[in-house]
Amino acid sequence: AGNSKSSKFTAVPPGPPMYLDLVYIPNHSNRKNVDVEFFKRVRSSYYVVSGNDSAAEEPSRAVLDSLLEGKAQWDCNMQVTLIPTHDSEVMREWYQETHEKQQDLNIMVLASSSTVVMQDESFPACKIEL
């Protein structure tokens, strides 16, 4: 009764899984908006992981771990490719520490060190094939 609100925020409402080709993990892969439920429901062949602000904990290790936990609950073992937009210490540590589990779950992580040079500009990039 009253105006009490639950302190638990769910980024994805309950319901059946959604299957997509490509998903950009929202809010620079911040753990406030993405949890295990997100990965249980939003199933994709490709997830783009943005974030290169270690002070803001982006990308979040909790989000990366949620991918593993969520995918472990899928009823199929489809290939998932994780595409980081930036090289980060969090991503490197997570990759090394969970590599065996990634292989078991059929998750591949693309290298994020590609650079595109156009005229006088250069910027990080990666190729996505669907």
TrEMBL record:
**What is the gene name?**
Map1b_0
Question: Got a GO cellular component term for this one?
Answer: synapse
Organism from which the protein derives = Peucedramus taeniatus
Name any one GO molecular function: microtubule binding
Q: Name one GO biological process term.
A: dendrite development
Q: Which InterPro entries match?
A: MAP1
Q: What top-level branch of life does the organism fall under? A: Eukaryota
- The protein's name in its UniProt record: MAP1B protein
